[in-house]
Amino acid sequence: MTEYKLPDVWQWEDENDHLSGNRPTAGSRMEQTLPVGDAPFQIYSLGTPNGIKVAIMMEELKALGVEGADYDLFKINIGAGDQFGSDFVAINPNSKIPAMVDKSQTPQINIFESGSILLYLAEKFGQLIPADIHGRTETLNWLFWQIGAGPYVGGGFGHFFSSAPEKMKYPIDRFTMETKRQLDLLDQTLAKRPYIAGDTYTIADIAIWSWYGRLVLGESYEGSAEFLDVASYTHLMEWAERLNARPGVQNGLNAEYRPIKDEAEED
């Protein structure tokens, strides 16, 4: 292996023009008109670990009988660069899914980052977050834990285990160790209580299940469940399977993502 020599000033070498290619700059790359449905909430997302959080949250709210939680769900194809279109960037300048618009407010409210969306909906409808300060704080502790910890699993372990062009021992070892530490933390926590933040199901469970529940159920990164020995985390496995059986979770996973453009435009 050729030793990498750090330059004095980093320069971007992969200057390709493909819309979905990573670049060291932010902002829109093309004009875009996103469709807008009739429901109060317009969600622009994809079925990724971060994306499914919002669909699951909406379906859990509907299962609770919450009025005003209707939504239109549109697919942002990140492989085609939809996240860099002008309309999407106007909602989320960071060009990441999911993004949501609350049309029931005047003027409308744009919300981005999955944790922010979950918290916004929980507070708006007074659901899936405890009202008492102790329960609310513990829920937020774990919600923000997931937001900070998730990139080690996705961008770290998942990338080097599954997506990197070659297998490299050092980064795989480094991020596997951290991922297993996080799995052990969740397993120890769930040995003491039925849900992540305590005795009740909250947005912390939705956020963490979407990443870690799916991971231990073998739905992320082919071969990773065996590699990580997820069966050894018995309390985490039980929780993941229990949440997987919830109608709201299944309805969120099976929600239909409508296209943002017709087939003729895509061709």
Automatic annotation (TrEMBL):
Q: Which residues form a coiled coil?
A: none
Q: According to its UniProt record, what is one Pfam family this protein matches?
A: GST_N
Q: Where is the GST N-terminal domain?
A: 42-129
* SUPFAM superfamilies, sorted: GST C-terminal domain-like (SSF47616), Thioredoxin-like (SSF52833)
Boundaries of every GST C-terminal domain copy: 132-263
Could you tell me which NCBIfam families the record lists for this protein?
Answer: PRK11752.1
Q: What is this protein called?
A: Glutathione-dependent disulfide-bond oxidoreductase
Species for this entry: Fundicoccus culcitae
